[in-house]
Amino acid sequence: MDLPHHGHRATKPRARTGPPAGDPMLFDDTSSGGPQMTNQGYYNSGYMSGPPAAGAGAGAGVGVNNLFTDPMANAAVMYGSSIANQGKDIVNKEISRFVSMNKLKYFFAVDTKYVIKKLMLLMFPYTHQDWEVRYHRDTPLPPRHDLNAPDLYIPSMAFITYLLLAGMALGIQKRFSPEVLGLCASTALVWMVIEVFAMLLSLYLLTVHSDLSTFDLIAYSGYKYVGMIFTVLCGLLFGSDGYFVALAWSSCALMYFIVRSLKMKILSSLSSDSMGAGASAKPRFRLYITMATAIFQPVIIYWLTSHLVR
Amino acid sequence: MAFTLYSLIQTAILCTNAIAVLHEERFLSKIGWAADQGIGGFGDEPGVKAQLLNLIRSVRTVMRVPLIIVNSVCIVLLLLFG
């Protein structure tokens, strides 16, 4: 059988007597997985450490055919995979009633190169020249092809990492308990909701017709977690001085990043009026919005991390 | 200032209730914030005040019935569980 190079476990030597029961789930058999891979759209299976459950569900049905000679086990596997597919369909249908899955998939279409370059950009944005988001026939390019596009992968991963770091920092100071972790998580989440809501409200009130969707704002609001992680790490490693130095560094970098990114989207969005008097007020308010968002970032970073590094 | 998700829900309900109790005739007209006084011209520059009045009016119209339901549920829950 031709083992694909995507399978991370495939390089381990396996006994010839047959794999253990859980093994076929671990590498996705892309040789026969053509149809379901195109369904997954932008998911780059090489980046994930395990195949998506859908791939495993359908792939297992194909892949284990050669291995199971017992018809009962065969039938059981087929039944289980069909049940899993039905459950997946039901969940997808319910979720897509509230959230547009295609729009969400666009934000998770990332690859390793993009993540590394974006993380470096978040920490040192001063040398980046071109901040325009590139389009391809009216639709924005996915983050995989355009460094300036916002994504939701980095914010969600950074949020979870921040929670783990907070737990570790509290544990080092012997102040840990599971409730505190939940409290930290919901506090950070609530602040993000407040910030996104305030941005949406101000963009609506000032009739700024930008193409910033809610997910874009969530993405830009979530980039601060990277700065928070860096700050907390430096605070843990180097004490109080390291904390403030890292806070200053990540605040400046994040403020510069937010101002440059949002300037492209908010300040240059066309207002279709030709009144001279009205146009002069608009860029000022848009500038205020951008500056307010930028100023808010270090405040929040300090608020959410200072109690972790005492 | 540790927030829980429950406090977020509480804040949302309280703020929406606050917007919903602004009466059109008795209060908003008196201070010149009625929804039909704000819309001046028909250009595509409504201005901040007109947008705000529009927002208040649409929140009141849309959230009237759901707020009734949510408030009733909240009252029952608070009575039962304190």
From TrEMBL, chain A:
Comp. bias intervals (Basic residues): 1-15
InterPro entries in the cross-refs: Yif1_fam
Gene Ontology biological-process annotations: endoplasmic reticulum to Golgi vesicle-mediated transport; protein transport
Keyword terms: Endoplasmic reticulum, Golgi apparatus, Membrane, Protein transport, Transmembrane, Transmembrane helix, Transport
Membrane-crossing segments per the record: 152-173, 180-206, 226-259, 285-304
Region described as Disordered: spans on this chain: 1-31
Protein's membrane topology: Multi-pass membrane protein
GO cellular component terms given for this protein: COPII-coated ER to Golgi transport vesicle; endoplasmic reticulum membrane; endoplasmic reticulum-Golgi intermediate compartment; Golgi membrane
Compartment(s) of residence: Endoplasmic reticulum membrane; Golgi apparatus membrane
Entry similarity comment: Belongs to the YIF1 family.
Role description: Has a role in transport between endoplasmic reticulum and Golgi.
PANTHER family: PROTEIN YIF1A, YIP1 INTERACTING FACTOR HOMOLOG YIF1 PROTEIN
Protein name per UniProt: Protein YIF1
Species whose genome carries this gene: Clupea harengus (Atlantic herring)
Organism placement in taxonomy: Eukaryota, Metazoa, Chordata, Craniata, Vertebrata
Gene: yif1a
Automatic annotation (TrEMBL), chain B:
Keywords recorded for this protein, A-Z: Membrane, Protein transport, Transmembrane, Transmembrane helix, Transport
Residue intervals passing through the bilayer: 62-81
Subcellular location: Membrane
One GO term (biological process): endoplasmic reticulum to Golgi vesicle-mediated transport
Signal peptide: none
PANTHER family on file: IMMEDIATE EARLY RESPONSE 3-INTERACTING PROTEIN 1 (PTHR15858)
Family listed: Belongs to the YOS1 family.
UniProt protein name: Immediate early response 3-interacting protein 1
Organism expressing this protein natively: Clupea harengus
Gene: ier3ip1
